[in-house]
Design brief:
Elements (H helix, E strand, L loop, with lengths): L3 E4 L8 E7 L3 H6 L2 E3 L13 E6 L4 E9 L2 E7 L2 H13 L3 E2 L12 H10 L5 H15 L6 H8 L2 H5 L5 E7 L5 H9 L17 E7 L2 E7 L9 H16 L2 E7 L15 E7 L16 E3 L8 H12 L14 H8 L1
Parallel strand pairs: 1-7, 8-10, 8-11, 11-12, 12-13
Antiparallel strand pairs: 1-2, 2-6, 3-4, 4-5, 5-6, 9-10
Helix pairs in contact: 3-4
């Protein structure tokens, strides 16, 4: 029987990476690359489920876990280099790399397998919890009721976002505090802050989590008619990302009279932030029907309220634990059909 291997963990940086190996000769194949810490051949450890040892080519400490009679997991350090060393050596030992993601899961049908694969790409504990619930629900799905299909489809936007961040764009006139706000939301200084108008000329993005939801915050160039050619190029980019954002936050300066201009956000603002209330405690309310949050990015006043408002705007309704949700485009097509 052919020995196959497959990377079971998501590609990228992490504490641990796992490579699955299976086949009747899997133990022998691994034994060519791995030496137990006691120095005995790996083939002599059939009575042990977990074996600690050294990956011979890299002299790296790792663990081999037996999950079935002819199935194993090689658990190594996270990152690309360690995984590539394991895969390269397994290839040299005669194994082949499997590209059948679904067959390496515990799924009982194709839809459940899609959720299992999606789990590899989840970015937060909260999204992982929802995907685990969906793995169970798609395992024994009954969609004979058309209303059940429609209800599931109504959560498709939510489901598809469980494996990628919501895109939130901060826009506004120059020097209203967008860069300070993205730094405050990120928890560290990601964007350059300077009182000179037009400092931000390119898009600055930062991935973070708000209320457990993965979010990509984008700090855009301050939008105004003046400015040099470079600044105007930044403004053009800002208008592009505003058009494609999941949520546009329009930031205005509390110290400016008539500071809110809907055209700055291309009339796409879903949330208005009145910043710098530490400098002016009684700002003029913006003339808008959008939710408004008053805060100071410098002092942190109102930051919790903003995070709650962002969460509500992105996920106005969280599906219940028993609600089926499509998490892939294929599942959406299946529900529509």
């Amino acid at each position: 029987m052919t020995v196959e291997f497959h990377e079971l963990t998501h590609r990228g940086r992490g504490a641990i990476s796992v490579v699955g190996v299976r086949g009747e000769e899997a133990r022998k194949c691994i034994g060519q690359c791995f030496r137990p810490v006691n120095g005995r051949p790996f083939t002599d450890t059939s009575h042990r489920t977990i074996v600690y040892g050294i990956w011979i080519s890299t002299n790296e400490d790792l663990i081999v876990l037996q999950t079935d009679e002819h199935a194993f997991e090689v658990q190594c350090h996270g990152g690309f280099a360690a995984v590539e060393s394991v895969k390269t050596d397994l290839l040299a030992a005669g194994a082949i790399e499997s590209d059948d993601d679904a067959s390496w899961t515990f799924a009982t049908n194709v839809h459940q397998a899609e959720v299992a694969i999606a789990l590899e790409s989840c970015l937060t504990q909260r999204t992982a919890k929802h995907l685990l619930q969906q793995f169970q629900l798609w395992g024994d799905v009954d969609l004979s009721d058309p209303n059940a299909r429609q209800t599931a489809l109504s959560f498709s936007t939510f489901g598809l976002k469980l494996t990628s961040p919501w895109r939130v764009v901060l826009c506004g006139r120059p020097n209203v505090g967008k860069s300070s706000l993205i730094n405050a939301l990120s928890g560290f200084e990601r964007a350059i802050v300077h009182p000179t108008a037009g400092t931000t000329r390119d898009l600055v993005s930062q991935n973070t989590a708000i209320d457990g939801w993965p979010v990509q915050l984008t700090d855009s160039a301050g939008i105004r008619d003046a400015g040099n050619e470079i600044e105007q190029a930044g403004i053009a980019k800002a208008r592009e990302v505003i058009d494609s954002a999941d949520l546009v936050i329009h930031v205005v300066d509390a110290t400016e009279k008539d500071g809110f201009d809907p055209s700055v956000s291309q009339n796409r603002a879903g949330l208005i932030v009145v910043n710098k209330v530490d400098l002016y405690e009684s700002p003029e309310p913006p003339n808008t029907d959008c939710p408004v949050v008053y805060l100071s990015a410098m002092t942190g006043q109102g930051l919790d309220e903003l995070q709650s408002a962002i969460s509500k705007a992105l996920v106005p309704v969280v599906p219940g634990d028993d609600q089926l949700v499509p998490v892939t485009a294929e599942q959406c097509d299946y529900l529509k059909g």
